[in-house]
Amino acid sequence: MSKIQVDIFIPCFIDQMYPETGFNMVKILEALGCEVFYNAEQTCCGQPAYNAGFFDDATEVATKFLNEFKNEKRYIVTPSGSCTGMLKNGYSTLMKQTPNLHQCRLMQKTVYEFTQFITEILKVDKIPGAKLNAKGTYHDACSALRECGIKAGPRTLLSNVEGLEMVEMNDVETCCGFGGTFSVKYEPISVAMAEQKVNNALDTEAEYLISTDTSCLMHLEGYMQKQGKKIKVMHIVDVLASGW
Fold first, then answer.
1. HEC states along the chain?
2. Which end of the chain is more exposed for a tag (fewer CB within 10 A), N or C?
3. pLDDT 10s digits, 119-173
């Protein structure tokens, strides 16, 4: 039986700051029987420019992405609900009146956030060998939850990690305050939202704050380090690769 073929798309934050998460994603996909491909020419999905209103620049980057992910027989998997939301939704706006609209729609049928791909396409609810002796709490990243409808899948995978006790925090669906350039333009509001999210996480007495998006985790980790908070952040991919 032929392997499921996967093109991986690595988000900017993971490429530049958390590369180990990308490597862990590849390890898991291969362990689950996928054949993984990586196009070294890939860059950004265009989300920063799109969210800032620079639609011409975003369209240029999006066109580059479409040219680099043309194989319709492969799934596109990325460890980011935010990038997935951009590819599935933002591209529809950018490509609406361009010759690339058909290609865009074909691409959108194949792109999945990592946990979504694991649970919905591979039909896997437990990663063999995943082990983390700790207490954790999960943060619903806005794009993953609201744009991609990702809710139960990550929780199912985490519940089956050996030794990991998961506890839900209060207001779990509330934004962490990052929001890309929002955190730069409205820093006081962004910091207050991070404070609320971190306090809710601390109330669970969890050792790890876990999410699908490094953007949220980076924002929260920055706040926690500055305030001397003891809880650590961890991308769900790294949790699922623990114990190997």
1. CCCEEEEECCCHHHHHCCHHHHHHHHHHHHHCCEEEECCCCCCCCCHHHHHCCCHHHHHHHHHHHHHHCCCCCCEEEECCHHHHHHHHHHHHHHCCCCCCHHHHHHHHCCEEEHHHHHHHHCCCCCCCCCEEEEEEEECCCHHHHHHCCCCHHHHHHHHCCEEEEECCCCCCCCCCCCCCCHHHHCHHHHHHHHHHHHHHHHHCCCCEEEECCHHHHHHHHHHHHHHCCCCEEEEHHHHHCCCC
2. N
3. 999 999 999 999 999 999 999 999 999 999 999 999 999 999 999 999 999 999 9
Provide the pairing of β-strand 232-235 with 162-166: unpaired
User: How many beta carbons lie within 10 A of that of residue 144, not counting itself?
Assistant: 27
146, 147, 153, 157: CA torsion to nearest 10: -100
Give the separation between CA 236 and CA 177, rounded to whole angstroms: 20
- Domains of the chain and CATH, by start: 4-121 (3.40.50), 131-240 (3.40.50.11810)
Say how far apart CA 190 and CA 176 lie, in whole Å.
8
Sheet with 75-78, side-by-side order of all strands: 34-37, 4-8, 75-78, 111-113
Residue whose entry in the numeric block shows the structure tokens 């949220």: 216
